[in-house]
C-alpha cells in the first residue's frame, strides 16, 4: 500500500450554562478530548512505523467555534501536517449533534480522499459515542470501534477492540473508520520547537455552507442539568452508634431444658 492519508477528528465541549439550555463555552480554555488525542497519536505512530512513503499526510479536522483553532494548533504541534476547521457559530454550536458532525466529516472525506479516518470513541461532555459509527454508515465504509490495537498491512487493517467479554480482533479492507479507546496508546507531549513550527503549518477554514451541509438538529434539547450534588457525610457520636447498634441487633428466644441427673 502507498499514499496513505489519515484524517483524525476532535471536538470539545464543556459544562452546563446558567440558563440550563446547553454547555458553557464562554471564558473557558478548551483542551483536546483525550480520546481524540489518542487518535492523533496513533496516526503519527502509523507514519513512524510504516514510513512517510506510505503515510503521505495526516490531516486533523474539528467542527466548532473559533476557539477550536487552538486545539488544531496543538495537533499540528504533535506532528499533524495540516488542519481543517469547520467553523460553527457560538449560537449554533450547542445544537450541533453527532449526525451533523458526521455529515460535515463526510464532506471533508469526499473532498480530501483519505484512506483512513480515526476518531475518538466518544465525547467527554455528554459521552455521546455515535459520530464514528454514523460517519462509517454515511460513507458505506467498514468500521472498528473501541480500538486498543491497530495494525496495517498492505490494504488490510487489523483491529483489536475491547468488548464486554474481553478482546475481539477483526480485519477489513481500507478505507475504514476507526474509533480509539484509552489503551491504544499514550499521547506524546508537543515540544516547544514543534509548537513554533505549528504556527506556520496550513490551517484551512470552512463553514457548513461552504461544504453544502445542513447541520440543523433533528432533536430539541428541553433542559440540560448537572447531576445532583451528593450530600456530605457526618460523624455520629459514640452514644448514637451504640443506640443504633442495639436497636438494629437481632433478638433470639431460647427454650432451655434443665435435666437433673443423679448418679
DSSP helical segment count: 6
Instruction: Give the rounded overall mean pLDDT.
Output: 83
N-C termini distance: 102 Å
Order of helices and strands: EEEHEHEHEHEEEEHEH
* CATH class descriptor: Alpha Beta
Radius of gyration: 27 Å
The structural domain count equals 1
Unreliable stretches covering 5 or more consecutive residues: none
Q: How big a fraction of the residues is strand?
A: 25-35%
Give the CATH superfamily. HUPs
Going across the biggest sheet, name each strand in turn: 9-8-7-10-6-1-4-5-11
Task: Report the CATH topology name.
Answer: Rossmann fold
The largest pleated sheet is described as: 9 strands, mixed
Helix content: 25-40%
Total number of strands: 11
Structural class call reads: alpha/beta
Q: What is the second-level CATH architecture?
A: 3-Layer(aba) Sandwich
What spatial form do the alpha-carbon principal axes imply?
A: globular
Please tell me about this protein's structure.
The protein is globular, with a radius of gyration of 27 Å. The strands form 2 sheets. A 9-stranded mixed β-sheet has the order 9-8-7-10-6-1-4-5-11, sandwiched between helices. The longest helix is centred in the first third of the chain and has 17 residues, at 34-50. The chain has one domain: HUPs (Rossmann fold, 3-Layer(aba) Sandwich), CATH 3.40.50. Helix 3 (98-112) crosses helix 4 (131-139). The protein has helices at 34-50, 68-78, 98-112, 131-139, 192-198, 238-248; strands at residues 4-9, 15-16, 23-24, 55-64, 82-87, 116-120, 143-153, 156-163, 166-173, 176-180, 203-206. The protein is an alpha/beta fold and 263 residues long. Residues 20-215 form the Electron transfer flavoprotein alpha/beta-subunit N-terminal domain. Residues 224-248 are annotated as: Disordered. Belongs to the ETF beta-subunit/FixA family. Its main location: mitochondrion.
Amino acid at each position: 500500500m502507498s499514499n496513505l492519508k489519515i484524517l483524525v477528528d476532535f471536538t470539545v465541549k464543556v459544562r452546563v450554562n446558567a440558563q440550563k439550555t446547553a454547555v458553557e463555552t464562554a471564558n473557558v480554555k478548551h483542551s483536546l478530548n483525550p480520546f481524540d488525542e489518542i487518535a492523533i497519536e496513533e496516526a503519527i505512530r502509523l507514519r513512524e512505523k510504516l514510513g512517510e512513503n506510505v503515510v503521505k499526510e495526516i490531516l486533523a479536522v474539528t467542527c466548532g467555534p473559533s476557539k477550536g483553532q487552538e486545539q488544531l494548533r496543538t495537533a499540528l504541534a504533535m506532528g499533524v501536517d495540516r488542519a481543517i476547521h469547520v467553523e460553527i457559530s457560538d449560537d449554533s454550536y450547542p445544537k450541533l449533534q453527532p449526525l451533523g458532525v458526521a455529515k460535515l466529516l463526510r464532506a471533508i472525506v469526499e473532498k480530501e480522499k483519505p484512506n483512513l479516518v480515526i476518531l475518538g470513541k466518544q465525547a467527554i461532555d455528554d459521552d455521546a459515542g455515535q459520530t464514528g459509527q454514523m460517519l462509517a454508515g454515511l460513507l458505506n465504509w467498514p468500521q472498528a470501534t473501541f480500538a486498543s490495537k491497530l495494525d496495517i498491512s498492505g490494504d488490510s487493517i487489523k483491529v483489536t477492540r475491547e468488548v464486554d467479554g474481553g478482546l475481539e480482533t477483526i480485519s477489513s479492507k481500507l478505507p475504514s473508520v476507526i474509533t480509539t479507546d484509552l489503551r491504544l496508546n499514550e499521547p506524546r507531549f508537543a515540544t516547544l520547537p514543534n509548537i513554533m513550527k505549528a504556527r506556520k503549518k496550513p490551517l484551512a477554514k470552512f463553514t457548513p455552507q461552504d461544504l453544502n451541509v445542513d447541520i440543523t438538529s433533528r432533536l430539541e434539547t428541553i433542559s440540560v442539568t448537572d447531576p445532583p450534588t451528593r450530600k456530605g457525610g457526618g460523624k455520629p457520636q459514640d452514644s448514637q452508634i451504640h443506640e443504633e447498634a442495639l436497636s438494629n441487633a437481632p433478638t433470639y428466644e431460647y427454650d432451655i431444658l434443665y435435666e437433673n441427673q443423679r448418679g
